[in-house]
Design goal:
The chain has helices at residues 2-11, 18-23, 26-51, 58-68, 80-110, 120-150, 163-171, 174-201, 210-236. It is mostly helical and 241 residues long. Bound molecules: protoporphyrin IX containing FE. The site of protoporphyrin IX containing FE has 21 residues, from helix 3, helix 4, helix 5, helix 6 and helix 7.
């Protein structure tokens, strides 16, 4: 549809802006996916490191949560930084998911029949499936996670301002643990392949750097996954209570 509108605009003589023109191409959508993906990985790394402050006890963790609402003061007013971050991350998620969905529709239209033989192409198809289903799991997780620990509306034990207590209350029940563990494993797989893909799209990859890019992507995936998993595991083991 977007490509059609783009062609109509060209026929009518209207010049689309370079950004709109880029968005209509597959390369442009991949570049958007790569850059929004890297931005989200940066956020996740910081979020994971921040979560580990839970091991220093309720006072440290809750004061860290309070600090997140004061970043940028006095230049920024109150929790403005947090609101800016929410808008930027929200846009990144929407653009990342929209580009992924549109690229997969294009891919399906271009190749409606499935692979028959076990070849390198089938391996690619396996990675594509993992990325697609992992992406859907992560999108559902993000919505639930925000309702659970950020807005608190999906969490019967939520107490405003007691971030430490909210996290501990969550992981003392078995089912939030299952949701978090499944989502974190999906996240690890997604980052592992996504980082490599982003490096290729953005032109950082060549024959010499392939192995290094794989190592960096896998290390990031393992560190972020284990770092996030440490919190529910510590609560289940009674180390954090
Ligand atoms: C075990 C893993 C995780 C734990 C324990 C956790 C914990 C939390 C907590 C306690 C908050 C609320 C912070 C506050 O109100 O100050 C929060 C917010 C948030 N988390 Fe997580 N998180 C985890 C994983 C993730 C993952 C994997 C993602 C993204 C894919 C994510 C994205 C977010 C976002 C976007 C916010 C909202 C920040 C805001 O209020 O603007 N989290 N998380």
């Amino acid at each position: 549809m977007a490509a059609y509108r783009f062609r109509v605009a060209l026929t009518l003589g209207a010049r689309p802006t370079p950004i709109v023109a880029l968005w209509t191409t597959s390369v442009g959508k991949k570049a958007v996916m790569a850059s929004t993906g890297l931005l989200m990985v940066l956020f996740l790394l910081l979020h994971m490191l921040g979560n580990l402050k839970i091991f220093f006890g309720p006072a440290d963790f809750n004061s860290y949560a309070g600090y997140l609402r004061r970043i940028g003061e006095p230049v920024l007013h109150g929790a403005w930084y947090l609101y800016i971050q929410r808008v930027v991350l929200g846009l990144a998620v929407i653009l990342h998911f929209t580009a992924a969905y549109q690229l997969s529709r294009r891919d399906q239209k271009a190749r409606p029949t499935k692979y028959v033989h076990a070849t390198g192409a089938q391996k690619n198809s396996f990675a594509t499936h993992t990325m697609r289903w992992g992406g859907v799991i992560l999108l559902l997780f993000i919505v639930w996670h925000l309702l659970d620990l950020s807005a608190g509306v999906a969490n019967p034990h939520y107490v405003d301002g007691n971030v430490y207590g909210n996290v501990v209350a969550d992981f003392t029940h078995w089912w939030p643990n299952v949701i978090y563990i499944v989502a974190m494993l999906a996240l690890g797989l997604h980052i592992n392949h996504g980082f490599w893909s982003a490096a290729n799209t953005l032109g950082y990859s060549n024959a010499r750097r392939q192995a290094a890019i794989r190592v960096v992507g896998s290390t990031l995936a393992v560190v972020i996954t284990l770092g996030f998993l440490a919190v529910p595991i510590a609560v289940m083991a009674g180390l954090v209570r």
